[in-house]
Amino acid sequence: MFIMIVVENLLFFLTAYAFKYLFGVIVSPAKYDAEKIVLVEKYLLETFIAISLYVIVKSISQYVSQVQASRVSEFIDDKIHAAAVDLDLAFYESPEYFDTLKLAKDAGAERPNQVVTTLVDVVKNALMFCGISFVIFTINWLILPILIICVIPTFLVRVALADKLYQLREKQTPVERQAAYLSSLITADTLAKEVRSFGLGDYIKRLYLTIRLDLLVQRLKIIRRGAIHDIVTSLLGSFGFFGCICFFCYNAMKGTITIGQISLFVIIFPQLFNILQSLSQGISGLYQNGIFLTQLFKFFDLKPTLVDKTDTTALPVNDMLELKMENVNFTYPNSSNPVLTNVNLSIPPGKVIAIVGLNGAGKTTLIKLLCRLYDPTSGSVILGEENIRNFKIEDFRKTISAVFQDFGKYNLSVADNIRFGDIYGNRPFEDMVKATEASGANEYIEEFPNKYETIMGRIFEDGREISIGQWQKLAIARALYSPSRFIILDEATSALDALAEYEFLKNFRKSIGNKGAIVISHRVSAVKHADYIYVMSHGQVAQSGTHEELIAMDGDYATLFKDDKEIEA
Ligand SMILES: Nc1ncnc2c1ncn2[C@@H]1O[C@H](COP(=O)(O)OP(=O)(O)OP(=O)(O)O)[C@@H](O)[C@H]1O
């Protein structure tokens, strides 16, 4: 790119000088003879070649610039994704993260491109400026400083405007995110049913428009003020430009400059003014993009809070180990209320453990800790004899497969939906079938003409939408397909009909083999066959035991079970 810029500039000056010599010969007092014609033809040919080369190089240079810009854009996109993948769950549960991500994405999409292209323009214009300055300097040394002084105020005004616009953008980011969220409510498929049945479309549309208009008014106020300052300072620049022309005309009339210099001046001087304007625009643009890129780097600088210890222990080979929680307390970051208090529980291999409790009791939070998506504030999670903090996070997470309440509905093929449980395992197809048979998903998959190659969901062509219960069966198949040591179902059977849930849980112990399992369900009657049951209340284990023991205790569990039975009846 740099080579192209240098060549392009050289060709521009070559063209200008070819013109200078051409005019010099044409208006020379030598008479019209064969020698003069040959000379004119020679300069005409040289001018033609120089112009043609200039045009070709300019086009190539534009092409190279576009290729470079696209590559930079892809590169930055990939870096943003890599940084986002590395961050842990805590970031995804905090608004500050989304603000930083938004600003980084705003910067990421186009700014690096703009930096490259603006930088190229600045270098190009700076080289051109040096060349033209030299030529102008040979004509009259005073012209240059006058012009520069006249352009400086425009430059300062643009830098100040960039600063103000950036500050405003930073301030507006949370509100802009709110507007984007409202827009997604009426454009995305997720809430299409609810928005229509409650007739929310117009209301959300108006709310969105009000926010956007408010943001626009604030922005336009700053832009308007900037435009007025820009007009005033640009006028000053034009005065300088005009002054130089007057000065030149005066000297031309006096005959102190040659006709060749006049032709050079006519070609070059308007360019100089344009270049100075572009340079000031380019440098202030670089400054503006620079402050945006700061946000991109701020995003890249985010570091996961959960990191591997320097001396990690290898996972024990023995896969018949218990997973335990010992005196675990937990408070979410940015919150002061403890969500778990002194929790003790254990999940032995090959056993099904159930956790029941009212909404907000802390069940899902407990699962997040078991999966090491968060670390306990105090107390430990232990695999066998080892605190899970001593293992590599990536290795430990592979020991658990979980189906969360908000599990993934991947709009990809059935096979991909299951393969995601063990994405790098090169497993035989039979394993996939075994998993879908255990979850009950095979019943509907077998009816699809394309079976496991059927695309799920309605987002893409030929996609098949399935019911929530069927999605759940697919998610359970994914967890069963995973070669993990423990499997967790967090209300993963909530949408299954009572019979399907009963059938599934009856066979669940057989499907898990030696794996330890946790099942969370609000249907207490569905988990009564679990080997051991924990009852959670306000972040604590209020009761624990087998179904029979808990019924005999006549506490929270017995009440939940009785309520459940009455509702079922
Ligand atoms: N990311 C978070 N940041 C702060 N507090 C949270 C967060 N997630 C959950 N909580 C709080 O932790 C408490 C326990 O939530 P949790 O989701 O663990 O309950 P739960 O027992 O799974 O409820 P449910 O049966 O409704 O799924 C709730 O009071 C909730 O407000």
Automatic annotation (TrEMBL):
It comes from the Bacteria. Residues 323-563 form the ABC transporter domain. It is a multi-pass membrane protein. Residues 1-288 form the ABC transmembrane type-1 domain. Gene3D superfamilies: ABC transporter type 1, transmembrane domain (1.20.1560.10), P-loop containing nucleotide triphosphate hydrolases (3.40.50.300). One of its GO terms (molecular function) is ABC-type oligopeptide transporter activity. This is ABC transporter ATP-binding protein. The chain crosses the membrane at residues 6-27, 39-57, 126-159, 231-253, 259-276. It is found in: Cell membrane. InterPro entries: AAA+_ATPase, ABC1_TM_dom, ABC1_TM_sf, ABC_transporter-like_ATP-bd, P-loop_NTPase, Type_1_exporter. GO terms for cellular component: plasma membrane. Keywords: ATP-binding, Cell membrane, Membrane, Nucleotide-binding, Transmembrane, Transmembrane helix, Transport. Pfam families: ABC_membrane, ABC_tran. SMART domains: AAA (SM00382).
